[in-house]
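Many introductory courses stop at the sequence. We go one step further.
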Amino acid sequence: MKVHRLDPRGWPDRELLAAVAARDGAAFSVFYRRHLSAVIAYLLRQTGDPEMAADLAAEVFAAVLLSASRYRAAGTSALPWVIGIARHKLLMSLRRGRVEARARRRLGLEPVELDDLDLQRVERLGDAGAGRLEQLVGQLPERERAAVRAHVVDERSYREIASELVCSELVVRKRVSRGLARVREQISNTGPAS
């Protein structure tokens, strides 16, 4: 894909990732800034530890650098793809009992020591990302909102949610899928959180 505009800030994620795959540092910077707060919010919610969330986020974005050429657009926002990487990195780290650093080592990146100000910034980024996502989920129709919160935020199984809502698992899956599609569309239409 030939990049045709000079300022990457207005590029959709698929163009940014194509440029990242071609080693365009400016495109990576825009992509990173666009999705950092959402990644930090997700990792903070999962770990409750700002230092671990920051460490994992570094590994996530190193993995984005290494795998950008394999990205296949499933919508206008690559955030679900990035959160998938974050989830994978988190699970691998939990299994191994330490934060995985393979992608950063492949890129030759050294660990960064975080001070109290850095950790406060991580928490602010997490709050901003979480607030933005909560706002978008809050705008969903009631049934989709309940299903998305139960499955994505509370990490409950489809079976458990279906039992509580007195409906089938398939209905819950569809509600979650539709709700997440609406959130992705809204992110694409309104732009990223800053």
